[in-house]
Amino acid sequence: MNIRSLITFIFTGIILMVVQVLFLKNLAVFGVAMGFLYLMFILDLSINSNKINLLLIAFFLGLLIDIFYDTIGMHAAAATLVAFVRPYWLKAISPTGGYDESNRPDLHEMGLSWYISYSFPLFFIYSFLFFTIDQWGTGGLLGVLYKSLFSTIFSMLLAILVQVLFFKRRRRI
């Protein structure tokens, strides 16, 4: 990764966090679905990212969101779990020939069907842990599953929409 793409990626992460904190914080679609757009930053890291760096980035990104949401580590725990599961999930869904060294798991690089099969379970894991911690002892399992499913669908739609509208397709040589 060269310095230009690193700066662009960091800037994208900052923009995603600002959108998450300013616009998506108080948005709950039908009082059920919450959008977790900042998770796109963790999911779009390079396929060959170092696992320790991935865990640290996810933890501190979640902790930063927790500061603005006042949620006492809920986002940090869920984001860290996603970062832990991500390499194993990438290995489980890897194509026959494996991944290229330069591949990033985004919509334009891998295609819509692969991106949905990659990110949907990770968004669901995030949502399920987040709502389980949120409703610990007060809500039933069905309420957690209901919120997790609809938040996952809403977050997936947001992630696909953002990638289609704002990320340009890279030219292949």
From TrEMBL:
It is found in: Cell membrane. The keyword 4Fe-4S does not apply. The chain crosses the membrane at residues 6-24, 29-48, 54-85, 112-133, 145-167. GO terms for biological process: regulation of cell shape. It is a multi-pass membrane protein. Keywords: Cell membrane, Cell shape, Membrane, Transmembrane, Transmembrane helix. GO terms for cellular component: plasma membrane. Belongs to the MreD family. This is Rod shape-determining protein MreD. It comes from Algoriphagus hitonicola.
